[in-house]
Amino acid sequence: MNELPGETEDGEYILEVSGLNVTFHTHRGDIRASQNVSFKIPEGEICVLVGETGSGKSVIGQAILHLLPSSAGVSGNIRYLGKEILSLREKDFSRLRGKEISLIPQNPSGSLDPLMKCKTQISEVMEYVRKIPKDRRDSETMSILAELGFPDPGTVAESYPHELSGGMRQRVATGIAMAAKPRFMVADEPTKGLDYAARKSTIDLFLHLKEDHHDSILMITHDLELAQTVGDTVGVLYSGEIVEFGRCVDVFSDPKHPYTKGLIAALPKNGMNAMPGMCPGLTDLPKGCYFYDRCPEQCEPGETIHPDLDLSVYYDPTENRGRCVRCHMS
Ligand SMILES: Nc1ncnc2c1ncn2[C@@H]1O[C@H](COP(=O)(O)OP(=O)(O)OP(=O)(O)O)[C@@H](O)[C@H]1O
Ligand code: NI
Predict the structure, then answer these.
(1) Which residues belong to any copy of the ABC transporter domain (predicted)?
(2) Residues that place a CB less than 5 A from ion ligand 2
(3) Is residue 8 a part of any domain in this protein?
(4) Which of 135, 150, 169, 196 has its CA 20 to 30 A from that of 120?
Protein backbone atom coordinates (compact mmCIF):
# COMPACT_ATOMS: atom_id res chain seq x y z
CA MET A 1 0.00 0.00 0.00
CA ASN A 2 1.32 3.38 -0.96
CA GLU A 3 0.26 5.26 2.10
CA LEU A 4 2.44 8.24 2.95
CA PRO A 5 4.09 7.96 6.34
CA GLY A 6 1.79 9.37 8.96
CA GLU A 7 -0.88 10.64 6.63
CA THR A 8 -4.45 10.75 7.88
CA GLU A 9 -7.10 8.69 6.18
CA ASP A 10 -8.59 11.54 4.26
CA GLY A 11 -5.15 12.74 3.25
CA GLU A 12 -5.33 15.77 5.50
CA TYR A 13 -2.87 16.79 8.13
CA ILE A 14 -3.90 18.46 11.35
CA LEU A 15 -1.06 20.93 10.87
CA GLU A 16 1.20 21.77 7.95
CA VAL A 17 3.94 24.34 8.35
CA SER A 18 5.60 25.32 5.10
CA GLY A 19 8.45 27.74 4.50
CA LEU A 20 8.00 29.51 7.83
CA ASN A 21 10.35 32.44 8.36
CA VAL A 22 10.36 34.53 11.53
CA THR A 23 12.68 37.52 11.85
CA PHE A 24 13.02 39.92 14.77
CA HIS A 25 14.32 43.33 13.80
CA THR A 26 16.58 44.59 16.59
CA HIS A 27 19.20 47.32 16.93
CA ARG A 28 21.83 44.55 16.77
CA GLY A 29 20.51 43.50 13.39
CA ASP A 30 17.94 41.03 12.15
CA ILE A 31 17.57 37.88 14.23
CA ARG A 32 16.57 35.06 11.89
CA ALA A 33 14.82 32.96 14.50
CA SER A 34 13.08 30.63 12.07
CA GLN A 35 14.20 29.93 8.54
CA ASN A 36 12.26 28.06 5.92
CA VAL A 37 10.80 25.67 8.50
CA SER A 38 8.50 23.01 7.06
CA PHE A 39 6.91 19.93 8.57
CA LYS A 40 3.52 18.24 8.76
CA ILE A 41 1.67 16.58 11.61
CA PRO A 42 -0.96 13.92 10.86
CA GLU A 43 -4.01 13.86 13.11
CA GLY A 44 -3.43 11.72 16.19
CA GLU A 45 0.34 12.09 16.28
CA ILE A 46 2.81 13.90 18.49
CA CYS A 47 5.54 15.82 16.70
CA VAL A 48 8.42 16.97 18.85
CA LEU A 49 10.82 19.81 18.09
CA VAL A 50 14.16 19.55 19.86
CA GLY A 51 17.33 21.66 19.84
CA GLU A 52 19.52 23.80 22.05
CA THR A 53 18.33 26.98 23.68
CA GLY A 54 17.76 29.75 21.15
CA SER A 55 17.47 27.36 18.20
CA GLY A 56 13.99 28.68 17.40
CA LYS A 57 11.67 26.08 18.87
CA SER A 58 9.31 28.38 20.77
CA VAL A 59 8.90 30.89 17.96
CA ILE A 60 7.37 28.13 15.84
CA GLY A 61 4.75 27.46 18.54
CA GLN A 62 4.16 31.18 18.89
CA ALA A 63 3.69 31.57 15.13
CA ILE A 64 1.09 28.76 15.14
CA LEU A 65 -0.83 30.41 18.00
CA HIS A 66 -0.43 33.98 16.67
CA LEU A 67 1.50 34.92 19.80
CA LEU A 68 4.51 36.57 18.14
CA PRO A 69 4.98 40.29 18.73
CA SER A 70 3.50 42.33 15.90
CA SER A 71 6.97 43.70 15.15
CA ALA A 72 8.21 40.24 14.10
CA GLY A 73 8.55 39.66 10.35
CA VAL A 74 6.66 36.47 9.50
CA SER A 75 6.23 34.69 6.18
CA GLY A 76 5.28 31.24 4.96
CA ASN A 77 2.16 29.16 5.45
CA ILE A 78 0.59 27.34 8.36
CA ARG A 79 -2.42 25.21 7.53
CA TYR A 80 -4.73 23.77 10.15
CA LEU A 81 -6.84 20.96 8.68
CA GLY A 82 -6.00 22.28 5.25
CA LYS A 83 -6.98 25.87 5.99
CA GLU A 84 -4.35 28.61 6.01
CA ILE A 85 -4.25 30.20 9.48
CA LEU A 86 -1.01 32.21 9.58
CA SER A 87 -2.55 35.04 7.59
CA LEU A 88 -5.84 35.10 9.53
CA ARG A 89 -6.71 38.36 11.21
CA GLU A 90 -6.76 38.31 15.00
CA LYS A 91 -10.55 38.46 15.07
CA ASP A 92 -10.80 35.27 13.01
CA PHE A 93 -7.89 33.48 14.65
CA SER A 94 -9.29 34.11 18.12
CA ARG A 95 -12.16 31.78 17.22
CA LEU A 96 -9.63 28.95 17.03
CA ARG A 97 -7.24 29.81 19.85
CA GLY A 98 -8.04 27.93 23.05
CA LYS A 99 -10.91 26.09 21.34
CA GLU A 100 -9.54 24.22 18.35
CA ILE A 101 -5.87 24.94 19.03
CA SER A 102 -4.75 25.17 22.62
CA LEU A 103 -1.48 26.00 24.36
CA ILE A 104 -0.07 24.03 27.26
CA PRO A 105 2.10 26.78 28.66
CA GLN A 106 5.78 26.55 29.56
CA ASN A 107 5.39 28.16 32.94
CA PRO A 108 2.10 27.05 34.47
CA SER A 109 2.63 29.15 37.60
CA GLY A 110 2.26 32.24 35.44
CA SER A 111 -0.83 31.03 33.63
CA LEU A 112 -2.86 29.70 36.56
CA ASP A 113 -4.98 32.14 38.51
CA PRO A 114 -3.61 32.16 42.10
CA LEU A 115 -6.97 33.19 43.53
CA MET A 116 -9.08 30.47 41.96
CA LYS A 117 -9.48 26.85 42.92
CA CYS A 118 -8.22 24.39 40.33
CA LYS A 119 -11.69 22.99 39.65
CA THR A 120 -13.02 26.46 38.86
CA GLN A 121 -10.21 27.16 36.40
CA ILE A 122 -10.96 23.93 34.54
CA SER A 123 -14.75 24.24 34.62
CA GLU A 124 -14.64 27.87 33.44
CA VAL A 125 -13.12 26.71 30.18
CA MET A 126 -15.93 24.18 29.76
CA GLU A 127 -18.47 26.89 30.42
CA TYR A 128 -17.08 29.54 28.11
CA VAL A 129 -15.61 27.46 25.32
CA ARG A 130 -17.94 24.48 25.17
CA LYS A 131 -21.06 25.86 26.87
CA ILE A 132 -21.31 22.78 29.06
CA PRO A 133 -24.25 23.11 31.47
CA LYS A 134 -23.45 23.59 35.14
CA ASP A 135 -24.65 20.17 36.29
CA ARG A 136 -22.21 18.39 33.97
CA ARG A 137 -19.18 20.58 34.59
CA ASP A 138 -18.28 19.19 38.03
CA SER A 139 -18.24 15.57 36.98
CA GLU A 140 -16.32 16.34 33.81
CA THR A 141 -13.77 18.34 35.80
CA MET A 142 -13.26 15.38 38.11
CA SER A 143 -12.79 13.03 35.21
CA ILE A 144 -10.19 15.36 33.65
CA LEU A 145 -8.32 15.52 36.97
CA ALA A 146 -8.39 11.73 37.14
CA GLU A 147 -7.11 11.57 33.53
CA LEU A 148 -4.21 13.77 34.58
CA GLY A 149 -3.08 11.00 36.88
CA PHE A 150 -3.95 12.55 40.24
CA PRO A 151 -4.64 9.74 42.71
CA ASP A 152 -6.91 12.04 44.70
CA PRO A 153 -8.69 14.33 42.20
CA GLY A 154 -11.10 15.64 44.85
CA THR A 155 -8.33 17.25 46.89
CA VAL A 156 -6.67 18.78 43.83
CA ALA A 157 -10.03 20.15 42.67
CA GLU A 158 -10.44 22.05 45.92
CA SER A 159 -6.83 23.30 45.98
CA TYR A 160 -5.44 26.67 45.00
CA PRO A 161 -2.37 26.61 42.72
CA HIS A 162 0.08 27.58 45.51
CA GLU A 163 -0.95 24.48 47.44
CA LEU A 164 0.34 22.24 44.66
CA SER A 165 3.85 21.23 43.60
CA GLY A 166 5.34 22.40 40.31
CA GLY A 167 4.60 19.09 38.65
CA MET A 168 0.99 19.14 39.82
CA ARG A 169 0.57 22.69 38.53
CA GLN A 170 1.93 21.56 35.15
CA ARG A 171 -0.73 18.86 35.05
CA VAL A 172 -3.51 21.26 36.05
CA ALA A 173 -2.41 23.64 33.28
CA THR A 174 -2.59 20.71 30.86
CA GLY A 175 -6.08 19.96 32.21
CA ILE A 176 -7.18 23.53 31.48
CA ALA A 177 -5.99 23.13 27.88
CA MET A 178 -7.77 19.74 27.67
CA ALA A 179 -11.03 21.12 29.08
CA ALA A 180 -11.66 22.94 25.82
CA LYS A 181 -11.37 19.59 23.98
CA PRO A 182 -9.09 21.16 21.38
CA ARG A 183 -8.23 19.20 18.27
CA PHE A 184 -4.62 20.29 18.42
CA MET A 185 -2.34 21.30 21.29
CA VAL A 186 1.04 22.99 21.45
CA ALA A 187 3.06 22.07 24.55
CA ASP A 188 6.09 24.28 25.16
CA GLU A 189 8.69 22.71 27.46
CA PRO A 190 6.24 20.80 29.69
CA THR A 191 9.06 19.29 31.79
CA LYS A 192 11.14 22.43 32.23
CA GLY A 193 12.12 23.15 35.83
CA LEU A 194 10.44 20.02 37.19
CA ASP A 195 12.13 17.69 39.65
CA TYR A 196 12.66 14.02 38.85
CA ALA A 197 9.28 12.76 40.11
CA ALA A 198 7.29 15.61 38.56
CA ARG A 199 9.06 15.18 35.25
CA LYS A 200 8.32 11.46 35.31
CA SER A 201 4.62 12.06 35.94
CA THR A 202 4.50 14.64 33.14
CA ILE A 203 6.09 12.14 30.74
CA ASP A 204 3.49 9.56 31.85
CA LEU A 205 0.70 12.06 31.25
CA PHE A 206 1.79 12.75 27.68
CA LEU A 207 2.23 9.05 27.08
CA HIS A 208 -1.37 8.62 28.20
CA LEU A 209 -2.54 11.43 25.88
CA LYS A 210 -0.70 9.74 23.03
CA GLU A 211 -1.64 6.14 23.59
CA ASP A 212 -5.16 6.40 24.98
CA HIS A 213 -6.44 9.67 23.53
CA HIS A 214 -4.48 9.80 20.26
CA ASP A 215 -4.17 13.54 20.76
CA SER A 216 -2.52 15.68 18.11
CA ILE A 217 0.28 17.64 19.72
CA LEU A 218 3.27 19.74 18.77
CA MET A 219 5.72 19.46 21.61
CA ILE A 220 8.66 21.77 22.06
CA THR A 221 11.38 20.53 24.38
CA HIS A 222 15.02 20.25 25.39
CA ASP A 223 14.20 16.97 26.99
CA LEU A 224 15.31 14.25 24.59
CA GLU A 225 14.01 11.51 26.85
CA LEU A 226 10.55 13.07 26.78
CA ALA A 227 10.83 13.42 23.00
CA GLN A 228 11.87 9.83 22.55
CA THR A 229 9.19 8.50 24.87
CA VAL A 230 6.17 10.37 23.57
CA GLY A 231 7.02 11.55 20.05
CA ASP A 232 5.90 9.98 16.80
CA THR A 233 8.05 12.29 14.70
CA VAL A 234 10.90 14.59 15.63
CA GLY A 235 12.33 17.71 14.05
CA VAL A 236 15.81 18.73 15.16
CA LEU A 237 16.40 22.47 15.07
CA TYR A 238 19.73 24.20 14.74
CA SER A 239 20.09 27.96 14.37
CA GLY A 240 16.49 28.42 13.28
CA GLU A 241 16.47 25.60 10.74
CA ILE A 242 15.35 22.00 10.78
CA VAL A 243 18.46 19.89 10.26
CA GLU A 244 16.84 16.48 10.57
CA PHE A 245 13.27 15.22 10.49
CA GLY A 246 11.94 11.71 10.76
CA ARG A 247 10.11 9.13 12.84
CA CYS A 248 11.36 9.18 16.45
CA VAL A 249 12.20 5.48 16.44
CA ASP A 250 14.46 5.97 13.43
CA VAL A 251 16.08 9.25 14.44
CA PHE A 252 16.90 8.20 17.99
CA SER A 253 18.20 4.77 17.03
CA ASP A 254 20.14 5.92 13.98
CA PRO A 255 20.71 9.70 13.87
CA LYS A 256 22.03 10.92 10.53
CA HIS A 257 22.91 14.57 11.06
CA PRO A 258 26.16 15.14 13.01
CA TYR A 259 24.30 17.60 15.26
CA THR A 260 21.63 15.01 16.13
CA LYS A 261 24.40 12.49 16.78
CA GLY A 262 26.01 15.02 19.12
CA LEU A 263 22.77 15.67 21.01
CA ILE A 264 22.25 11.96 21.57
CA ALA A 265 25.88 11.38 22.63
CA ALA A 266 25.45 14.17 25.19
CA LEU A 267 22.66 12.30 27.01
CA PRO A 268 23.58 11.11 30.52
CA LYS A 269 22.90 7.49 29.58
CA ASN A 270 25.39 7.78 26.72
CA GLY A 271 28.17 9.23 28.83
CA MET A 272 27.30 12.93 28.65
CA ASN A 273 29.82 13.75 25.95
CA ALA A 274 28.90 17.39 25.51
CA MET A 275 29.35 18.78 22.03
CA PRO A 276 32.13 21.34 21.89
CA GLY A 277 31.51 24.84 20.52
CA MET A 278 28.45 27.02 20.21
CA CYS A 279 25.85 27.67 17.56
CA PRO A 280 26.50 30.74 15.40
CA GLY A 281 24.78 34.03 16.22
CA LEU A 282 21.42 34.40 14.51
CA THR A 283 22.27 37.93 13.38
CA ASP A 284 25.44 36.82 11.63
CA LEU A 285 24.95 33.38 10.15
CA PRO A 286 27.73 31.86 8.04
CA LYS A 287 27.30 31.39 4.31
CA GLY A 288 27.90 27.63 4.32
CA CYS A 289 26.58 25.01 6.71
CA TYR A 290 25.61 26.57 10.05
CA PHE A 291 27.02 23.54 11.86
CA TYR A 292 30.36 23.61 10.01
CA ASP A 293 32.46 25.01 12.89
CA ARG A 294 31.34 22.29 15.28
CA CYS A 295 31.08 19.46 12.82
CA PRO A 296 33.46 16.52 13.23
CA GLU A 297 33.23 15.89 9.48
CA GLN A 298 33.92 19.44 8.21
CA CYS A 299 33.22 18.39 4.65
CA GLU A 300 34.55 20.69 1.97
CA PRO A 301 31.23 21.92 0.52
CA GLY A 302 30.01 22.72 4.03
CA GLU A 303 32.47 25.58 4.32
CA THR A 304 30.84 27.61 1.58
CA ILE A 305 27.62 25.92 0.47
CA HIS A 306 24.54 25.87 2.63
CA PRO A 307 23.01 22.37 2.63
CA ASP A 308 19.34 21.94 1.69
CA LEU A 309 16.70 19.91 3.42
CA ASP A 310 14.55 17.97 1.01
CA LEU A 311 11.33 17.41 2.90
CA SER A 312 9.75 15.66 -0.04
CA VAL A 313 12.05 12.75 0.79
CA TYR A 314 10.27 12.35 4.10
CA TYR A 315 6.84 12.38 2.55
CA ASP A 316 7.86 10.35 -0.45
CA PRO A 317 6.18 6.94 -0.26
CA THR A 318 9.14 5.30 -1.99
CA GLU A 319 11.49 6.43 0.78
CA ASN A 320 10.50 3.78 3.25
CA ARG A 321 12.66 5.01 6.11
CA GLY A 322 11.23 8.51 5.71
CA ARG A 323 14.08 10.70 6.78
CA CYS A 324 15.41 14.03 5.66
CA VAL A 325 18.73 15.47 6.70
CA ARG A 326 20.31 18.87 6.05
CA CYS A 327 23.84 17.62 5.46
CA HIS A 328 26.08 17.40 2.40
CA MET A 329 27.37 14.05 3.59
CA SER A 330 24.04 12.22 3.72
N1 LIG B 1 10.31 38.78 20.98
C2 LIG B 1 11.57 38.58 20.57
N3 LIG B 1 12.35 39.62 20.20
C4 LIG B 1 13.62 39.43 19.78
N5 LIG B 1 14.20 38.20 19.67
C6 LIG B 1 13.47 37.14 20.02
C7 LIG B 1 12.12 37.26 20.50
N8 LIG B 1 11.64 36.00 20.76
C9 LIG B 1 12.65 35.16 20.48
N10 LIG B 1 13.74 35.83 20.03
C11 LIG B 1 15.02 35.25 19.60
O12 LIG B 1 14.74 34.25 18.63
C13 LIG B 1 15.62 33.14 18.78
C14 LIG B 1 14.82 31.86 18.95
O15 LIG B 1 14.12 31.93 20.19
P16 LIG B 1 13.21 30.76 20.75
O17 LIG B 1 12.59 31.24 22.00
O18 LIG B 1 12.32 30.27 19.68
O19 LIG B 1 14.30 29.64 21.08
P20 LIG B 1 14.05 28.23 21.77
O21 LIG B 1 14.68 27.20 20.88
O22 LIG B 1 12.63 28.06 22.12
O23 LIG B 1 14.95 28.38 23.07
P24 LIG B 1 14.67 27.86 24.57
O25 LIG B 1 14.99 26.42 24.51
O26 LIG B 1 15.65 28.63 25.38
O27 LIG B 1 13.25 28.15 24.90
C28 LIG B 1 16.51 33.47 19.99
O29 LIG B 1 17.73 34.00 19.50
C30 LIG B 1 15.72 34.52 20.72
O31 LIG B 1 16.60 35.37 21.42
NI1 NI C 1 11.59 27.96 23.91
Answers:
(1) 17-264
(2) 57-58
(3) no
(4) 196
